[in-house]
Protein backbone atom coordinates (compact mmCIF):
# COMPACT_ATOMS: atom_id res chain seq x y z
CA UNK A 1 0.00 0.00 0.00
CA UNK A 2 2.96 2.32 0.47
CA UNK A 3 3.55 2.23 -3.28
CA UNK A 4 -0.05 3.37 -3.84
CA UNK A 5 0.48 6.22 -1.37
CA UNK A 6 3.73 7.16 -3.13
CA UNK A 7 2.10 7.16 -6.57
CA UNK A 8 -0.80 9.30 -5.34
CA UNK A 9 1.64 11.67 -3.64
CA UNK A 10 3.73 11.93 -6.80
CA UNK A 11 0.62 12.74 -8.84
CA UNK A 12 -0.44 15.34 -6.26
CA UNK A 13 3.05 16.86 -6.47
CA UNK A 14 2.75 17.07 -10.25
CA UNK A 15 -0.61 18.84 -9.95
CA UNK A 16 0.98 21.36 -7.61
CA UNK A 17 3.93 21.90 -9.95
CA UNK A 18 1.38 22.60 -12.69
CA UNK A 19 -0.37 25.09 -10.39
CA UNK A 20 3.02 26.68 -9.69
CA UNK A 21 3.59 27.12 -13.43
CA UNK A 22 0.16 28.70 -13.87
CA UNK A 23 0.46 31.05 -10.91
CA UNK A 24 4.11 32.00 -11.26
CA UNK A 25 5.04 31.78 -14.93
CA UNK A 26 1.80 31.97 -16.92
CA UNK A 27 -0.42 34.11 -14.67
CA UNK A 28 -1.13 36.84 -17.21
CA UNK A 29 -1.59 34.50 -20.20
CA UNK A 30 -5.14 34.40 -21.63
CA UNK A 31 -5.54 30.65 -21.06
CA UNK A 32 -4.49 30.98 -17.42
CA UNK A 33 -6.76 33.97 -16.91
CA UNK A 34 -9.67 31.86 -18.20
CA UNK A 35 -8.82 29.05 -15.76
CA UNK A 36 -8.80 31.45 -12.80
CA UNK A 37 -11.54 33.73 -14.11
CA UNK A 38 -9.47 36.93 -14.03
CA UNK A 39 -9.30 39.86 -16.39
CA UNK A 40 -6.12 41.13 -17.97
CA UNK A 41 -6.11 44.09 -15.58
CA UNK A 42 -6.73 41.97 -12.48
CA UNK A 43 -4.04 39.49 -13.52
CA UNK A 44 -1.51 42.29 -13.92
CA UNK A 45 -2.34 43.72 -10.49
CA UNK A 46 -2.37 40.35 -8.70
CA UNK A 47 0.71 38.90 -10.42
CA UNK A 48 3.01 39.24 -7.36
CA UNK A 49 0.42 37.63 -5.07
CA UNK A 50 -0.21 34.80 -7.51
CA UNK A 51 3.52 34.19 -7.88
CA UNK A 52 3.91 34.02 -4.11
CA UNK A 53 1.07 31.49 -3.93
CA UNK A 54 2.66 29.55 -6.78
CA UNK A 55 5.90 29.25 -4.85
CA UNK A 56 3.97 27.79 -1.91
CA UNK A 57 2.48 25.21 -4.26
CA UNK A 58 5.93 24.33 -5.56
CA UNK A 59 7.26 23.91 -2.03
CA UNK A 60 4.39 21.58 -1.16
CA UNK A 61 5.22 19.55 -4.26
CA UNK A 62 8.89 19.36 -3.24
CA UNK A 63 8.00 18.18 0.28
CA UNK A 64 5.70 15.48 -1.10
CA UNK A 65 8.26 14.40 -3.71
CA UNK A 66 10.98 14.12 -1.07
CA UNK A 67 8.63 11.95 0.97
CA UNK A 68 7.97 9.76 -2.08
CA UNK A 69 11.69 9.21 -2.60
CA UNK A 70 12.32 8.34 1.03
CA UNK A 71 9.42 5.90 1.41
CA UNK A 72 10.37 4.09 -1.77
CA UNK A 73 14.11 3.75 -1.17
CA UNK A 74 14.38 3.49 2.61
CA UNK A 75 14.35 0.37 4.69
CA UNK A 76 10.84 0.22 6.22
CA UNK A 77 12.32 -0.17 9.70
CA UNK A 78 14.72 2.76 9.39
CA UNK A 79 14.36 6.36 10.45
CA UNK A 80 14.51 7.31 6.78
CA UNK A 81 11.16 5.60 6.20
CA UNK A 82 9.70 7.43 9.19
CA UNK A 83 11.05 10.69 7.77
CA UNK A 84 9.44 9.84 4.42
CA UNK A 85 6.11 9.17 6.11
CA UNK A 86 6.41 12.50 7.93
CA UNK A 87 7.18 14.38 4.72
CA UNK A 88 4.25 12.74 2.93
CA UNK A 89 1.96 13.62 5.81
CA UNK A 90 3.17 17.22 5.90
CA UNK A 91 3.04 17.75 2.14
CA UNK A 92 -0.22 15.96 1.43
CA UNK A 93 -1.85 17.26 4.62
CA UNK A 94 -0.98 20.86 3.71
CA UNK A 95 -2.34 20.37 0.19
CA UNK A 96 -5.57 18.95 1.59
CA UNK A 97 -6.00 21.73 4.15
CA UNK A 98 -5.47 24.34 1.43
CA UNK A 99 -8.14 22.68 -0.72
CA UNK A 100 -10.56 22.51 2.22
CA UNK A 101 -9.92 26.16 3.01
CA UNK A 102 -10.57 27.10 -0.61
CA UNK A 103 -13.94 25.35 -0.79
CA UNK A 104 -15.12 26.45 2.65
CA UNK A 105 -14.36 30.10 1.94
CA UNK A 106 -15.76 30.12 -1.60
CA UNK A 107 -18.22 27.40 -2.63
CA UNK A 108 -17.82 28.42 -6.28
CA UNK A 109 -14.28 27.01 -6.09
CA UNK A 110 -15.43 23.42 -5.50
CA UNK A 111 -13.95 22.17 -8.79
CA UNK A 112 -10.57 23.80 -8.11
CA UNK A 113 -10.56 22.45 -4.56
CA UNK A 114 -11.37 18.96 -5.84
CA UNK A 115 -8.48 19.13 -8.32
CA UNK A 116 -6.17 20.40 -5.59
CA UNK A 117 -7.31 18.10 -2.79
CA UNK A 118 -8.48 14.73 -4.11
CA UNK A 119 -5.07 13.16 -4.73
CA UNK A 120 -3.67 14.37 -1.39
CA UNK A 121 -6.72 12.95 0.42
CA UNK A 122 -6.37 9.58 -1.29
CA UNK A 123 -2.62 9.61 -0.69
CA UNK A 124 -3.09 10.27 3.01
CA UNK A 125 -5.66 7.47 3.26
CA UNK A 126 -3.31 5.05 1.50
CA UNK A 127 -0.46 6.12 3.80
CA UNK A 128 -2.68 5.51 6.82
CA UNK A 129 -3.59 2.04 5.59
CA UNK A 130 0.07 1.29 4.86
CA UNK A 131 1.03 2.42 8.34
CA UNK A 132 -1.72 0.47 10.08
CA UNK A 133 -1.00 -2.73 8.18
CA UNK A 134 2.80 -2.59 8.46
TrEMBL record:
InterPro entries: DUF1304. Signal peptide: none annotated. Keywords: Membrane, Transmembrane, Transmembrane helix. The chain crosses the membrane at residues 55-74, 86-104, 110-132. Pfam families: DUF1304. PANTHER family: BLL0914 PROTEIN. This is Putative membrane protein. It comes from Agrococcus jejuensis.
